[in-house]
Each structure stands twice: as C-alpha cells, then as structure tokens.
Amino acid sequence: MKLFINAARFAAVRHRDQKRKGVYGAPYINHLLEVAQLLTLEGIDDEEILAAAVLHDSVEDVGVTFLELEERFGKRVASLVRELTDDMRLNSRERKQLEVAHAPTLSEAAQAIKVADKLSNVRAIYSSPPEGWGQERKQDYCDFARVLVHSCTHAPKGLVERFEQTYQETMRRIEKDANYTFTSKSSG
Ligand code: ZN
Q1: Ligand 1 midpoint to CA 60 (Å)
Q2: Residue 88: φ, ψ to 5°
Q3: How far is it, in rounded angstroms, from Cα 101 to Cα 176?
Q4: How far is CA 62 from CA 48, 57, 115, 147, 156, in A?
Q5: Spacing, Cα 178 to ligand 1 middle (Å)
Q6: Count of structural domains within the chain
Q7: Which of 10, 18, 155, 157 has the most CB within a 10 Å radius?
Q8: Beta-carbon neighbour count of residue 57 at 10 Å?
Q9: Where in the sequence numbering do the catalytic residues fall?
Q10: Could you report the per-residue pLDDT of 149-172, keeping only the tens digit for each?
Q11: Which pTM was predicted?
Q12: Where residue 120 sits, what CATH number does that domain have?
C-alpha cells in the first residue's frame, strides 16, 4: 500500500499544473487514478503495477526521469514506465504508428496499463471532449485506440471487453450527436 500511495502523491504533485485536454479541464491526476482503478477492477493488486499506472505519463508529460523513478519506486516500476513512454521527438503520427507496432512486444503488465489508459481516454472523448475536436477527429482517435488495444494480445480479457463496450458506446454517441447537429442545422 505504501508504494502505491507514495506514487499517487508523487504523481499528484508533479502533474499539479496539468489538466486533461477536455472542455471540463479535469485535473490530470483524475486520469491517472482512473487508470489504476480500472486495473484493480480486473483484480490486479500488484502494487508495482498500480504505481506504474499512476506514473505512466510522468516522463512524457512533466519531465520526470527514469532515474528518479528508479530511485524512488524501484527498477520494475521504472522499467514499466519506460515501456509506456513514447519518443516525444517524433511527431504524433509517427508516435501512434510506433505505439501500435510495439504494443505486442510489451510485457503483460505494460499491456494492461496501456489498455486501461486508452479506455480512460476514449471515455473522456465523450464525457469531456477535447476542445475543437470535430466528429471525425474523435472517431479517428477512438479507432486508433481500438487498433492499439487489440494489438495488446496479452492484456486481461475483461479489460479488453470493457474497452470494446466503451468504444461501441462512444462511437454511437458521437454519431448521434453529429446527426443531431446536422438535423438541427438543416431544419433551422
Ligand atoms: Zn495516460
């Protein structure tokens, strides 16, 4: 328990100035805790995996180093975060391609965190859509996330199913909203 609480507190402090992209601008820690919670719902109670879940964006987004993670939380947590960190020198398209290509080679634990991460992101696309994202961009993101999730061939089945349900639901809602906008525009 100690390790996880320390990691959650560390993540809260380091991500304190970061908000989620969505229009409601939720504090970033909400996303990190959601990812950890999704794993616990699958029965994952390995503290190092849960710690890596709340730290998974810390190198990419707020400049934490792998060395610092290793010193504070140990080798395994640092190496899980390393597996989940994209090369930010690449552009977003290249990063996405690489993410899909690398997914099947990730460890089981890293795949579980990745699927939970994408599930949280797809949920947010509907519940707090990123500002300025139209229907197509939202659908493109959800489709990318789905390809990625299905490339995580060793991820827990229940989590993948949960993702799939959320994906279907989100796509239906995006379409419904688009139809509504279209109808109300064309009728008025
Ligand atoms: Zn994330």
Answers
A1: 10
A2: -75, -5
A3: 32
A4: 20, 8, 22, 27, 29
A5: 27
A6: 1
A7: 155
A8: 22
A9: 60-61
A10: 999 999 999 999 999 999 999 999
A11: 0.93
A12: 1.10.3210.10
